[in-house]
Design goal:
The protein is mostly helical and 52 residues long. The longest helix is centred in the first third of the chain and has 22 residues. The chain starts with a helix and ends with a helix.
Length: 52
């Protein structure tokens, strides 16, 4: 596990926390969708960069 993959996975998890927080605050759905797309892309890229 290299540093870039770790940073991307942690960033994706941070975005997921933001999604939960924004959903509780009744923020606009488009903002939550945009943040969830970013979270999925960060976690997916981090998993692809794993050198297994």
């Amino acid at each position: 596990m290299n540093g870039l993959s770790t940073v991307l996975i942690v960033l994706g998890l941070f975005f997921i926390g933001g999604i939960v927080s924004f959903a509780k605050q009744k923020m606009p759905t488009s903002l939550i969708v945009l943040l969830s797309i970013g979270a999925v892309m960060c976690i997916g890229t981090g998993l692809l960069y794993l050198e297994v």
